[in-house]
Amino acid sequence: MKFSQRLYDKVKPIWEQNHAHPFVQGMGDGTLAKEKFRFYMIQDYLYLIEYAKVFALGAVKATDVKTMARFAELLHSTLSEEMELHRQYAKKFGIATQELEEAKPSPTTLAYTHYMLHVSQNGTLAELVAALLPCMWSYWEIGKDLAKKKDACDHEFYGEWITMYASAEFGQLATWCINLMDEHAKGKPEPELRKLEEIFLNTTRFEYMFWDMAYHEEMWPNNG
Ligand SMILES: Cc1ncc(CO)c(N)n1
């Protein structure tokens, strides 16, 4: 069995919870409150700034030029394409550039991004890939799932989001990451595989928490 299949089986129940989450379902049927999506967009923009740095670290840790180039492409496409989607949404939702740039991360955004950066800075390339894989893979799965729903891709607010994450281009990036994980897991002893599995599980848990944080527009307690 491929290592990625083992990872998938391990987190399947959590991914099912992601798909069933009212935030995700609300994007799919178009009923999600705009305020919640606005909150999500701002937090996700902050998330992507840190996430892009994980790709930069991937380029640093890559041991061949081809992998290095691919990480550089991912860094570029995150900054110019994925974050451009967010900037366009910000315009649509009346979020000024200044508000976007001055926004502060919620506890969940901070914990999630810091965990990913910690693993990426201190771990092996395989550990870095295990940390970022749930982000790409689970968004692609959610995108494809929502795109199947009637009219979802044409929705005034959520259609562009669904179209981007369901796209073949995004799918190719996710597939590349899945293959890279399998390549780097090959021949590794069981204790190392268990460590990779734990990292993958942790960022999967954070993905769920991110949806939940957005749905509840959760910042620090006591308005602090
Ligand atoms: C929280 C989160 N996970 C994954 C992605 C996909 O890149 C994203 N934009 N945001």
TrEMBL record:
Coiled coil: none annotated. InterPro entries: Haem_Oase-like_multi-hlx (IPR016084), TenA_E (IPR026285), Thiaminase-2/PQQC (IPR004305), Thiaminase_II (IPR027574), Thiamine_Salvage_TenA (IPR050967). It is an enzyme of class 3 (hydrolase). Keywords: Hydrolase, Thiamine biosynthesis. The keyword Cell cycle does not apply. It catalyses: 4-amino-5-aminomethyl-2-methylpyrimidine + H2O = 4-amino-5-hydroxymethyl-2-methylpyrimidine + NH4(+); thiamine + H2O = 5-(2-hydroxyethyl)-4-methylthiazole + 4-amino-5-hydroxymethyl-2-methylpyrimidine + H(+). Its EC number is 3.5.99.2. Residues 9-216 form the Thiaminase-2/PQQC domain. Pathway: Cofactor biosynthesis; thiamine diphosphate biosynthesis. Belongs to the TenA family. Catalyzes an amino-pyrimidine hydrolysis reaction at the C5' of the pyrimidine moiety of thiamine compounds, a reaction that is part of a thiamine salvage pathway. Thus, catalyzes the conversion of 4-amino-5-aminomethyl-2-methylpyrimidine to 4-amino-5-hydroxymethyl-2-methylpyrimidine (HMP). Homotetramer. NCBIfam families: salvage_TenA. This is Aminopyrimidine aminohydrolase. It comes from Metabacillus halosaccharovorans. The gene is tenA.
